[in-house]
Write a structure and sequence with these properties.
The chain has 463 residues and is mainly α. The chain has a single domain, classed as Growth Hormone, Chain: A (Up-down Bundle). It is built from 17 helices and 2 strands. The protein has helices spanning 34-48, 52-84, 88-116, 118-136, 142-156, 161-170, 176-204, 207-220, 222-228, 261-265, 268-296, 303-331, 333-353, 358-386, 392-421, 425-442, 456-461; strands spanning 13-16, 19-24. Strands 1-2 form a two-stranded antiparallel sheet. Strand 1 (13-16) and strand 2 form a beta hairpin. Helix 2 packs antiparallel against helix 8, helix 3 packs parallel to helix 5 and helix 3 (88-116) crosses helix 6 (161-170). The radius of gyration is 27 Å and the shape is globular. The chain starts with 12 loop residues before the first strand and ends with a helix.
Length: 463
């Protein structure tokens, strides 16, 4: 019906001059129910100021997918070798394409993290990672697979240094080992899941389906990371978790005073830790990438059974990060790393010396994996311990080429030695020597890092 007084109709009558005009009262907006208002308020609060634990949980998911891609390559590799007609050297070349791009871009990822914030870098990294992995699932040649995995490496560069930098900023120095330990279970569980899920998937479908599922998982994480991550607690009015109430407030990471790059490069501790990282990486990746292939080459060991070692590896990475990372908060990063690196050398030496039984191989894999899992977050934590806060991302990024150099060399060297000799013995022996040298180098690093106060930058420049 029409409204004679020109008002929008509602159920109640409108009165003009004390009498009813036969029209209806103007519609008034109804207030939302109190429960809905509270729910909307909570959502806005979470989006505006997430907690340190929400940040940690999302970063966990990022690492889970990222390392299911990186470490799952070794599980999917035997099927790719047969289908694409690759040798072990060619298989190492595909992985090295990933690593070349990764180590070339990672220092820039750290630099951008310190300047524009981790949220943008991580979100962009997931987008590129997912695209590269989807393309890998469609590759028909060595060249196409190398290009696709190289693109995945470009995305992955935004998913380690920015993630560990972000988590360290959201947790107080005395809680960083705990936080990084919990975070790092993500890559251990990602590897474990690949060892459980991929062998049956390879039987039922193909290696292409495995890469397609991983690529889709990376793309699904783009939106929540872009919406929820915050690059620094101070920027949204929070303190790092575990910081005492009386501690002086910290300024936001991106945009604060910078430590010159030249000052970082003049610090001897930077080079000692970097060289140790390179040597240890040679030993770690020589076994991890070729572990399933090494086991599957043993009499009576099927590919599916060999794939169980990836699960053992992944699960004991979780044990390692949950035990060694919190322990490093009390014992110090240096002493923890010295012991862990020596254990890696012992495992590789045993594998080089002879062919262990299946139970012994599982036990050696478990010990190796516990040290492997703790290695990368402990080295990453050194960026926060031995260098000022505003340089964490830059330092962690600059160490990535050291790590990448060791990983790239070991893939070619291990693959070529295996193709030339028919066994992995010589390659694993070389890895054991490198891990022992990495432990010796860490003995030259100070036991304790910087004090976390105003004098930190000045003291750091003298190290």
């Amino acid at each position: 019906m029409s409204a004679p007084c020109g008002r929008t109709a509602t159920r109640s009558r409108c009165r003009v001059g004390g009498r009813s005009c036969g029209s209806e009262r103007p519609e008034q907006p109804r207030p939302a129910p109190a429960g809905a208002q509270k729910k909307e308020s909570r959502v806005k609060k979470i989006l505006a100021s997430p907690s340190a634990w929400a940040i940690l949980a999302l970063c966990f998911a990022d690492l889970f997918v990222n390392y299911a891609v990186r470490l799952g390559y070794g599980v999917i590799l035997p099927a790719m070798i047969g289908d694409l007609g690759l040798g072990r050297t060619g298989a190492g070349t595909i992985y090295n394409a990933y690593l070349f791009i990764y180590i070339g871009v990672a220092p820039l990822a750290g630099w951008f993290t310190d300047r524009i914030g981790a949220r943008r870098v991580i979100t962009g990294g997931l987008l590129v990672l997912g695209t590269g992995v989807l393309l890998l699932g469609r590759a028909q040649s060595l060249a196409a697979a190398s290009l696709a995995f190289g693109l995945a490496g470009l995305g992955a560069a935004g998913l380690w240094v920015p993630v560990i930098t972000l988590v360290q900023r959201w947790f107080a120095p005395g809680r960083r080992g705990l936080a990084l330990g919990l975070l790092s279970t993500g890559y251990g569980l990602g590897f474990a899941a690949s060892g459980v899920l991929f062998p049956p998937l390879l039987e039922l479908a193909s290696w292409r389906m495995a890469w397609t599922l991983l690529g889709a998982a990376a793309l699904l994480l783009v939106l929540p990371n872009g919406a929820l991550l915050r690059s620094d607690p101070a920027a949204c009015g929070r303190r790092p978790w575990g910081e005492s109430p009386g501690a002086p407030p910290v300024s936001p990471g991106p945009g604060e005073a910078r430590l010159p790059l030249a000052a970082v490069l003049r610090m001897p501790v930077f080079w000692r830790i970097g060289a140790s990282y390179a040597l240890l990486s040679f030993g770690l990746y020589g076994l991890t990438t070729f572990l399933v292939d090494f086991a599957a080459g043993r009499p009576g060991v099927s590919l599916e059974r060999a794939g169980l070692l990836a699960t053992v590896h992944g699960l004991f990475q979780v044990v390692g990060v949950l035990v060694l990372l919190p322990a490093s908060d009390r014992l110090g990063r240096r002493d923890t790393m010295v012991a862990s690196n020596l254990a890696v050398a012992l495992v590789l030496g045993r594998l080089a010396a002879g062919s262990p039984s299946w139970p012994e191989l599982c036990a050696l894999t478990a010990l190796f994996a516990a040290c492997y899992g703790a290695t990368f977050p402990i080295y990453g934590a050194c960026a926060g311990d031995y260098f000022p806060r505003q340089a964490m991302g830059t330092v962690a990024g600059l160490w990535t080429p050291f790590y990448g150099l060791g990983a790239i060399l070991t893939h070619w060297v291990t693959g070529m030695l295996r193709d030339a000799t028919g066994s992995y013995g010589l390659a694993f022996g070389l890895g054991a020597a490198c891990a022992a040298a990495a432990s010796l180098l860490m003995l030259g690093v100070p036991r304790r890092g910087l004090p976390h106060g105003p004098a930190a930058e000045k003291e750091g420049a003298n190290r």
